[in-house]
Amino acid sequence: QVQLEESGGGLVQPGGSLRLSCVVSGEPIRYYSMDWYRDPPGKPRELVVSLTSDGRPLPQDSVKGRFTAWKDSDKNTMYLQMDSLKPEDTAVYYCTRVTGNYWGQGTQVTVSS
Q1: CA 70 centroid distance within chain
Q2: pLDDT tens profile 52-84
Q3: Distance between CA 95 and CA 104 in Å, rounded?
Q4: What is the C-alpha separation between 49 and 61, in angstroms, rounded?
């Protein structure tokens, strides 16, 4: 059974950085595309960064130049590096595996002074 678990969220000031981790168990991640999504308060869920099966990050326009993603196949872990954070980045962040539609439980990121 495939399971995903995010960690690394927290409270950060505007302009700060956070790194989220997504540990995957059950199957190796090297062969799969994966995504980071977020649920901003009062807004629809949105895609943040897609990570292709060969490891290319595809950030959405709203985070381009500030966020990137990569995976460590040896650790079976995907990461989301978030820099220059803004209050509008406040959300619950989820990692997902596209194939099979597997989701983690989410981790809260709050950007506030």
Answers
A1: 10
A2: 999 999 999 999 999 999 999 999 999 999 999
A3: 6
A4: 9
